[in-house]
Structure formats: structure tokens, C-alpha cells
Amino acid sequence: MIDRQRAVNEIALVNTRTATVTYGVQSLFTILASALPALAPVFRFRPFSWAAQKAYGLISYNRRIILPLNPDPASTGPSLHRGYRFAWILLAWILTAGILSHYSGHLEGLIPASGFWREYAICAGQLVWQGALLAVLAPGKLLDYLGNMMTVSLGGGLALGILDLVFGAIGTLPPLVYAAAFLGVAGAMLLEHARRCRLLGLSWTVSASWVGYRLFLLYFILN
After folding, report:
1. What is the DSSP letter of 14?
2. Which of 76, 84, 122, 163 would disulfide-bridge 61, Cβ 3.0–4.6 Å?
3. In this structure, what is the dihedral angle of CA atoms 149, 214, 203, 91, given to the nearest 10 degrees?
4. In angstroms, rounded to a whole number, what is the distance separating the alpha carbons of residues 64 and 165?
5. What's the CA gap between 85 and 188, in Å, rounded?
6. What is the pTM of this model?
């Protein structure tokens, strides 16, 4: 009864009484509507259902990118959905660059002030830089790598955003405190980037290129 390939990407729910199968967000809606009947009309509201389906697909098809696992030949991962992969990369780029644009304002005095769009350009440049490298070294792993790279960037951005809130609650702090926090997060990001590269079977040169791009831009910004 179950389409096993589809079930890899969307959780399957089997109704043994009616011999029917639902997948993905519709399975979740069926379970929630059974537990909370008052919500059933919301689940039938087409705009909500459409948005929930897209959000479910974004997470489901990118779950091995968001939380990578050690390679296991016996396990079956989600199919590569280019639309959802590009959507994840775009979302991570927008959120990361937005957070960094705000955070960089706390570093004035250590680095020159810039317009709001500098971090967006830097993040986009890294996508192009690393994408060109992967296109040469391992073209078959290009989208998997870029998805992982932007997940690392998003994780670092969210960590800086939380630290920004904590520092703001403490009071006015000198730029050196924000710079030290930034370096700490960047170090953790490098370790996670290297770990994900190992899981993808990529050489250390990919992480070296990732660091080299940032150092080159830092030199360019300071000079």
C-alpha cells in the first residue's frame, strides 16, 4: 500500500480501516485533527494547507543537510529536490546576512562602518567562491555542500543573534567583547564546517578555501 520512495521524503500514515495512505503534512493534519477536532477547519483552509506543505517540504527534503548523519550504506536519505535545496540556501543567506548586518554595527571602531548590504554581498560572494571550487573538485556534491555550508553560516548567525540579545540585556559593552564573541563563534563554525566536509568525503582544501575567502575579505575591508 505504501509508496516507499515517497515515504522516504514524506511520512506515510496508513488507515487500516479504509486502506488509504496519506503522506507528509496531510498525515500530520489527520493526526492533529483526530486529537483536536476544532482545528480541522484550519487544516482544510487552502492557503494554510499550501504554506504548511511548503514548510514541511523545505524541512523534510533538507533534513540531512540541517542535521547530517554519519554515512550509512543501509540508510535511505531524502531525494534531492533542487527547488527545496535552493530555497533552503536562499533562506539561510537572507537570515544570516541580516543578522550579521546588525551585529557588525557593534564592531565599529575595529572595522570600518558599512552599508546594510555589505554582509549580503559577502555571503553571496562566498556561495560563488565555494561553488566554483566544488564545481571543479566534486560537481556531484555541489548542492549538498552549499546546503551544508549555508546551514553552518545560519547556525553561526543565530548564535551571534542570541549573544547580541544577551549582551544588550547586560548593558553597553565595548566592541572588543563583540569581536571576541564573533571569533569564538567563527572557530566553532570552522570545526563544524570541517566535520561536515568529512561526512561528505571532501578534502581539507574546501575548509581552507572557506577560511581563505573570509581572511581575504577582512584584509580588503581593513585596508
Report:
1. E
2. 84
3. 10
4. 29
5. 24
6. 0.89
| Spatial separation of the C-alpha atoms in residues 132 and 146, rounded to whole Å | 11
Q: Which neighbouring-strand residues pair with 23? A: 12
Nearest to 189 by CA among 102, 88, 92, 80: 92
Q: What is the pLDDT of residues 97-108, one digit of tens each?
A: 999 999 988 888
- Count of C-beta atoms within a 10 Å radius of residue 205: 12
Contacts 24+ apart (CB under 8 A), 46-51: 49/25
Domain coordinates in residue numbering, the chain: 4-61, 82-222
Characterize 62-92 residue by residue with b for buried, 16 or more Cβ atoms within 10 angstroms of its Cβ, and e for exposed.
bebbeebeeeeeeeebbeebeebbebbbeeb
